[in-house]
Design a protein that fits this description.
This protein is α/β, with parallel strands linked by helices. The chain has 2 domains: 148 residues, Alpha-Beta Complex (Aspartate Aminotransferase, domain 1), CATH 3.90.1150.10; 256 residues, Aspartate Aminotransferase, domain 2, CATH 3.40.640.10. It is 41% helix and 17% strand. The strands form 6 sheets. Strands 4-12-11-10-9-5-6 form a 7-stranded mixed sheet, sandwiched between helices. Strands 15-16-19-18 form a 4-stranded antiparallel sheet, covered by helices on one side. β9, α7 and β10 form a beta-alpha-beta unit. α2 packs antiparallel against α10 and α11 runs parallel beside α14. The protein binds pyridoxal-5'-phosphate (PLP). The site of pyridoxal-5'-phosphate has 14 residues, from α4.
């Protein structure tokens, strides 16, 4: 049995008050909260064996090296990579995607080539490709989003694939719509036209089992801080054959095997891509986070979030002045609900929520092209769920919506903007 109250006990911040009221945290798509298990692992590292990895021949350095390397083994298992050599640590999803664009992208993209992304990308899976296209004189194309189903338009995908893009970069789960894309199908079709596929897993890896061999992607990017880990640690999975053939971005310590005055040789994977002292604390924290997630079980987490999403959509449907965005089919819907209270600006909504002790997010959610399509003011409110949320918190959010509407009812937002 999934015992959400017991899980909540593990998260110290959930006992906090915000604005004097018990905290309701509905912003896990932005960043997740951390359990004692992760906080304590980081605390132990600094108190008991802090030392730089790889270089020291003494007990503490050996222990920190071991923990850091084990964290890569665990990430490898978590996403079913073939080897820890395929696991590169970076700061976050954004850095992972930029790393691909700046190394592999720079190598393969030439003038006139096509790069394919979708209209539902976060800026971090959009701007790096714009920059690459600008650098190389390449063409950036978009798969359309069907604004009725909030899914990717598969006809548009086929049309764009006819242009034979060299790189296809697509999000697994939309951080605005909650849409879970059929990534295995997209990868298969992209490979059939010869493209290399990068999957943005920022909103999927923390919430469901993601198996890189099953979905058969070439790159997968995700962030530790969205999956109970600390900030400043993220991961780029890359297929070994591709990484072997790709030049590193940064030079310095750790990424080399030998250095002479005018030449050097590269270290083995994955270290070739990790110049300088690593985020050791981050690796150790991420290891603890994955151990914790594994203990709860990714399928259980997915199921729990699905129940929360179903409940929230049902409660929001009862309010005729609320519009929600995203697929209604729960089998392709993650725990993200963007919504609009008719006539009320999302920032006003978030402010009332804040006064009620409820953390949500409002704005363009780093997906301006998509959110501009959704609403004329290019902003929506968003609640997002994780393993520690409960239905009572959704009830509190609904009460806050009712309060917001009472305050702003009759406020002609769009009229004011005209
Ligand atoms: N991709 C998606 C779908 C996201 O939701 C986010 C963050 O919200 C990112 C990428 C960027 O993640 P980070 O800021 O950790 O790099």
């Amino acid at each position: 049995m999934y015992d959400v109250d017991k899980i909540r006990e593990d998260f110290p911040i959930l006992k906090q008050k915000m604005r004097g009221k018990p905290l309701v945290y509905l912003d896990s798509a932005a960043t997740s909260q951390k359990p004692y298990y992760v906080i304590d692992a980081i605390d132990r590292f600094y108190k008991e064996y802090n030392a730089n990895i790889h270089r020291g021949i003494y007990e503490f350095s050996e222990r920190s090296t071991e923990e850091y390397t084990e964290s890569k083994e665990l990430v490898k298992k978590f996403i079913n990579a073939r080897s820890y050599r395929e696991i590169i640590y970076v700061r976050n999803t954004t850095e992972a995607i930029n790393l691909v664009a700046l190394t592999y992208g720079n190598k393969v993209i030439e003038e006139g080539d096509h790069i394919l992304i979708t209209e539902m990308e976060h800026h971090s899976n959009l701007v790096p490709w714009q920059l690459l296209a600008e650098r190389k004189g390449a063409i950036l194309d978009y798969v359309k989003v069907d604004m009725n189903s909030y899914k990717l338009d598969l006809e548009s995908l086929e049309k764009e694939l006819e242009k034979k893009p060299k790189i296809v970069a697509v999000t697994h789960v939309s951080n605005v719509l909650g849409t879970v894309n059929d990534i295995k199908y997209i990868t298969k079709r992209a490979h059939e036209v010869g493209a290399t596929v990068l999957v943005d897993g920022a909103q999927s890896v923390p919430h469901m089992k993601v198996d890189v061999r099953d979905i058969d992607c070439d790159f997968l990017a995700f962030s530790g801080h969205k999956m109970l880990g600390p900030t400043g640690i993220g991961c780029l999975y890359g297929r070994e054959e591709i990484l072997e053939e790709t030049e590193p971005l940064y030079g310095g310590g750790d990424m080399i095997m030998t250095v002479e005055k005018h030449s050097h040789t590269w270290n083995e994977l994955p270290w070739k891509f990790e110049a300088g002292t690593s985020n050791i604390e981050g690796g150790i924290g991420l290891k603890a986070a994955i151990e914790y997630l594994n203990k709860i079980g990714m399928d259980n987490i997915k199921q729990h979030e699905r129940e929360l999403t179903e409940y929230a959509l049902k409660r929001l449907d009862e309010l005729d002045y609320v519009t929600t965005f995203g697929p209604r089919d729960l089998s392709v819907r993650a725990g993200v609900i963007s919504f609009e209270i008719n006539g009320v600006h999302p920032h006003d909504v978030a402010q009332i929520f804040d006064s009620e002790g409820i953390a949500i997010r409002a704005g363009h959610h780093c997906a301006m092209p998509l959110v501009t399509e959704l609403t004329r003011i290019a902003a929506v409110s968003r609640m997002s769920f994780y393993l520690y949320n409960k239905k009572e918190e959704i009830d509190r959010a609904v009460e806050a919506i009712e309060k917001t509407y009472k305050i702003f009812k009759g406020d002609d937002l769009y009229g004011r903007l005209r």
